Amino acid sequence: MKALFFSAVSVAAVVIAAAGLVVLALGLRNLFRASRTRRWPGVPGTIEAARVVETPSREAGPDGQVQTLYRAQVQYRYPGAGGQALSGSRVSLDEVSGSAPGPAQALVARYPPGASVTVFHDPADPAQAVLEPGISGASALLPGVGVGLLALAAGMWGIVRLWSGA
Questions:
Q1: Do residues 121 and 152 both lie within one domain?
Q2: Per the structure, how many domains does the chain have?
Q3: pTM of the model
Q4: Are residues 160 and 85 located together in one domain of the fold?
C-alpha cells in the first residue's frame, strides 16, 4: 500500500513538473515578446475611446456567485505606412482582467478620449501596437506560476525519496 502511495505521488510530481515546464515556457515566450516592444518605434496617436468593460467570469466564486471581471478597453488611432490610419486597442501585451474595478478605472483615466499619446508599433507588422511597451507585472505572472509548479513537483519528489528510503 505504501509503495502504491509513493508511486501515485511520483506520477503526480511528474505531471505537475510537465505542466510547470509548459507554463514556464509559455510565460517566458510572453516575457520575451513584451520585452521586444521596448524596441518598437513610437508614432503620435490619439485616444478615440476608453472605458471599463465588465464581463462575468467563467467560474463561480467561493460563495457560488458568478463574479464580474473588469478590464480597460482603450481605442486609439495612429498613422501607418503611406499615411494610412491604423487603429489599436492594446495598452500592453499583457492585459489582464481583475475582480476589482479600480485598476481598470485607473488605466482608463490615464487615457481620456482626445488625448495625444505615443503609440509603439511593430516595424514588421505596424498593425500590432501598444501604448505601454515593455515588461509589466503581469508579464512575470505566468513564469512565476511555472516556477512554482516546478518547485512543488521537486518538493513532492524529495518527500517521496526521503520517506521511501530511496
A1: no
A2: 2
A3: 0.72
A4: no
The residue segments making up the domain with residue 154 are: 1-38+134-166
Q: Let me know whether 117 and 145 are in one domain.
A: no
Three-state SS for the chain is CHHHHHHHHHHHHHHHHHHHHHHHHHHHHHHHHHHHHHHCCEEEEEEEEEEEEEEEEEEECCCCCEEEEEEEEEEEEEECHHHCEEEECCCCCCCCCECCCHHHHHHHHHCCCCCEEEEEEECCEEEEEECCCCCCHHHHHHHHHHHHHHHHHHHHHHHHHHHHCC
Q: What are phi and psi of 132, to 5 degrees?
A: -125, 95
C-alpha cell of residue 138: 503581469
- Which residues lie below 8 Å from residue 149, measured CB to CB, with a gap of 6+? 16, 17, 19, 20, 23, 24
Residues 77 and 60 in one domain: yes
- Which range has the worst mean pLDDT, 37-46, 74-83, 131-140? 131-140
What backbone phi and psi angles, to 5 degrees, belong to 56?
-70, 140
Question: Highest mean pLDDT: which of 14-28, 90-104, 108-122, 131-145?
Answer: 108-122
- 53 lies in the same domain as 72: yes
